[in-house]
Task: structure prediction
Amino acid sequence: MVTKFYQHSLALAFAIKEINESPRILSNVTLGFNIYDSYYYEKMTYRTTLDLLFKSLRLVPNYKCSASKKLLAVVGGLGCDTSIYISHVLSLYKIPQFLFGSCATELRKFPFPYHVATEVTHQNMGIIWLLQHFGWRWIGLFVVDDDSGEHFITMMKLLLPQHGICPAFIEQIGQNRRLNGVTEITSMLSKMCQLFKLSRVSVYIVYGDNRTMALLINIIQALYDDYKELTSMGKVWITTSHIDFAVSRIERHLKLDFFYGSISLTIHSQELPEFEKFLHTVKPDGTLKDGFFKAFWKQAFECVLPDSSDYSLSCTGKEKLDSLPSPVFEMRMTGHSYGVYNAVLAVAHALQALYESQSNCRSVFECRNTEFHDPQPWQLHRFLQGISFNNSAGETWSLDENRGMGTGFDITNIVTFPNNSLIRMKVGRVDPKALDRKKVTLREDLLVWHKAFNQVMPVSRCSGSCQPGSQKRKKEGEQFCCYECASCPEGQISIQKDMDDCSACPEDQYPNQDQDRCIPKMITFLSYKEPMGIGLASAAVSLSLITVLTLRTFIKHKETPIVKANNQRVTYALLVSLLLCFLCPFLFLGRPSKLTCFLRQSAFGITFSTAVSCVLAKTVTVVLAFMATKPGSSMRKWLGKTLTNSLVLSCSMIQICSCATWLGTTPPFPDLDTRSMTEEIVAQCNEGSVVMFYIVLGYMGLLSFISFLVAFLARKLPDSFNEAKFITFSMLMFCSVWLCFLPTYLSTKGKYMVAVEIFSILASGAGLLCCIFFPKCYIIVLRPGMNQREQVLTRKYE
Result:
């Protein structure tokens, strides 16, 4: 006999006594009860259920010879299998059955059981929550080898991987199996020892009933004697609601310190002070006399009552229940006993409702059922649906649409003592009716762990934690909980431990060196304040001033032969366009705005095209002038300002039209480039249309190539003031700069692209300025004697 379970019978008796003594419910009705044992055996369960229904002097199934026994409802059983066996019989007679143990939803296929305890689905989710909360990813399972155990294994195999947890092993315990021979026992103990010695597994889940736990206690005690190192090993045991840490006489003196700090999910219960007072009245000389009392008293106090024929140690009759250790008997009402108590109250309130419906009938003929005078079990179902009542603990109980009354599970922490006593401390709650975030609550500060952990939270993992900045990499041939840690790929981060995959930072952020967080990118652009910007701006200003000085020099000496030699207006236009080219970099420097983005490429394209057009016009003038000197040449009529002006205007107008089309359709606009640079956001101008951008560059390149080709062909013409040689060299430099520009521009990023373009503008413009105008300035300023018409004519005919 498991003496602790005798409390279930006492809870039933207490509930009946409370109802019979209460004037508020069933005042004219006296309830009674019968208690039968299932013997943990299906055949006996069926037999005792039939005895309950039909036995008077002898069992005659489906026949009652006496109407004195009025069975209204059945409370039982504790185990799911037992409950199913009982339901097979009771469902035939529509007798209400109240299950006070947690069972799976499969039992709901029977139409008449009512569930006092919450179904095991919520218990399973409570276990998963605990494992996740404490980061336990590598666990062992001990499961009873029966139908409910198979269902538990099936459910956990689905739930555990979904929540990132792996079972290191699943060991089924056949509690009815007998081990034959020393070899089989030794093999079983050796196997269990290996499971306990798995160093990485610190958490065990035990699913079963009291017999499962009793078998484990016996196994561990046997291992303690043979494997002394187990005594120093700490484990966390998580037990399910059917396990009550109840011991029989055989396990009573076994050590329980291995289970110190265990976590148990128990049926929710409340303190009932009156129940503890009732337990103090339970004595051999009391009024409570049932068929189990003598066996209970004998095993609980290890003595026999005086009227017994047994010659063992006689009881004094002064033994007290509160002196017993809690694994033997518990004064505080357990969750299962609380369920029995509330099941009885539910039947009583349903019966009260049935009688009240009878009293509401003004005559027998107005009542549909005259049998209300002699209530039948099946009549209670209508009143049980939707019933709600308050018990003496002040807690409200009601039946829902699924015939469930359960109010969840208590999370308890078990502390054992050297005298093999233990106490349960409530540290949390699993409440399926609460909001999602509050379905499971836990007072972690109240938890105690096994002494081997030194009150440090246990770790149960197949592999160590992967720190932020790394990700898990699965080991081949092992479960997903066993992995290696690998650094995140470049450009990605992991901000938490044990990340399956690294993730990229938002576009406006970048990973830090440890790759465990993102840092905001700095917005960058080619600023006037940085050395590169200062250098380019200074170069642009210097070249602009030089161009202005050159233009002033040419205007001041406009009457000299060297200035007149090749179309003064084209020369002035070339210098003005070069001046504008040297000012274009200021549109590229600084943070891009709508105006600068709108103007920069078009202004650069138009001014450079004008400059190259002027160079082309000057080159064509040189060629035509030479050809016109030949006797009878018809080229003389082409000489003059009309041709050069038309050439400059037409070539420039084509570029102007291209830029106008570009700005009118897809104009450039300010943009932020978050991808090109790892640690910076580049403030840039989006060109709008890349095609138009390259058309503008391509046209400028075409003009440059034509100018270079014409100048190259005219480089050896016999003229003292032949500019073709200088133009050839200047256009060679010009073309070289822009040919180098394209690959360099495409291979750079961020502000360096802008710097490359500015440098190309300044370098090509400086090439034109130096090669075409510096030789003339040298003669004008330093060698004025060479700037004479006589000198020119002398050279011309030498």
Q: What stands out?
A: DSSP finds 21 helices and 22 strands in the chain. Residues 794-798 have pLDDT under 50 and may be disordered. The chain has four domains: 3-117+271-304+328-398, 120-266+409-453, 470-520, 531-796. The CA atoms of residues 94 and 378 lie 5 Å apart.
